[in-house]
From TrEMBL:
InterPro entries xrefs: AAA+_ATPase, ABC_transporter-like_ATP-bd, ABC_transporter-like_CS, ABCA, P-loop_NTPase
Superkingdom in the source lineage: Bacteria
Domain ABC transporter: 4-229
Keywords (A to Z) from UniProt: ATP-binding, Nucleotide-binding, Repeat, Transport
Molecular function GO terms recorded: ABC-type transporter activity; ATP binding; ATP hydrolysis activity; lipid transporter activity
GO cellular component, one term: membrane
The keyword Transport appears for this protein: yes
Organism of origin: Anaeroplasma bactoclasticum
Transmembrane stretches, start-end: none
Designated name of the protein: ABC-2 type transport system ATP-binding protein
Keyword Repeat: yes
Length: 237
């Protein structure tokens, strides 16, 4: 089943064509990667699908709901943005409590499950601002799960993290597989390879390639995903 259908979606910011008529589908339960060099249109696409900005033309459906039904879509999705969205002066425990109240989901058992999955027990009493970047990202993604979303957007989930923190987050993200549909953007090709069932490569607002990592590599006869990506986006003359 398609959880997201995008049909000829266009977005102009004044004279800039951020999306030039993009069409593709995202399937239920998959981890889907959005890949592209800076300015490709990845964030714009996520913003349109989550109601943060309006499309210029075209259509998109989230679990069958058109973008005009954003009130319903907002109950289906959650976003963990590039910048961590936690309250810095609240402890981890208070952050979790705050977002539970905000979403009106007071489910102790589910919260304990999240705390356990993200190993947040050891930092529950620490204030947001005292946490390392890795722990902040971890908490941020944990908060994204509180509303029990069917679709979770992760925008650059491991940006700036060291290799250990990154691997730990990969394990957490992998463990969510099948429980919800996850759409993640990343500039780390090895992250996309490790986590994603399928990938869309965008460049300058256009969809250049879509498929599994293996299919994409085969399509341009390259053994390495990095070489394939560079060939597809036309980088390095
Ligand atoms: N609010 C805005 N006003 C004007 N132009 C914008 C705005 N937001 C994005 N753009 C432009 O739209 C294009 C696509 O930007 P977008 O942020 O979607 O790309 P991206 O693929 O997410 O890039 P990055 O990898 O750097 O995050 C770029 O040319 C960008 O400069």
């Amino acid at each position: 089943m398609n959880v997201i259908e995008i049909k000829n979606l266009k977005k102009n910011y004044k004279t800039i064509e951020a999306l030039k008529g993009v069409s593709f589908e995202i399937y239920e339960g998959e981890i889907f990667g959005l890949l592209g060099v800076n300015g490709a249109g990845k964030t714009t696409l996520i913003k349109i699908l989550s109601g943060l900005t309006k499309k210029t033309s075209g259509e998109a459906y989230v679990m069958g709901h058109s973008l005009e039904e954003m009130d319903i879509i907002k109950d289906i999705i959650d976003i963990s943005p590039q910048e961590t969205a936690i309250a810095q002066n609240l402890t981890v425990e208070e952050n979790l409590d705050f977002f539970q109240r905000l979403y009106g989901v007071m489910d102790k058992e589910y919260l304990d499950e999240i705390i356990h999955k993200f190993s947040l027990n050891e930092v529950l009493k620490r204030k947001g601002k005292t946490l390392s970047g890795g722990w902040q990202r971890r908490l941020s993604i944990a908060i994204g799960l509180i509303s029990k979303p069917k679709i979770l957007f992760l925008d650059e989930p491991t940006l700036g993290l060291d290799v250990i923190a990154r691997r730990e987050l990969w394990n957490i993200i992998s463990s969510l597989k099948g429980k919800m549909t996850i759409i993640l953007t990343s500039h780390y090709l090895e992250e996309i390879e490790a986590l994603c069932d399928r990938v869309a490569i965008l460049s300058k607002g256009e969809l250049l390639s879509i498929g599994t990592v293996d299919e994409i590599k085969e399509s341009v006869h390259e053994d390495s995903f990095e070489e394939a990506f560079i060939k597809i986006v036309g980088g390095i003359e």
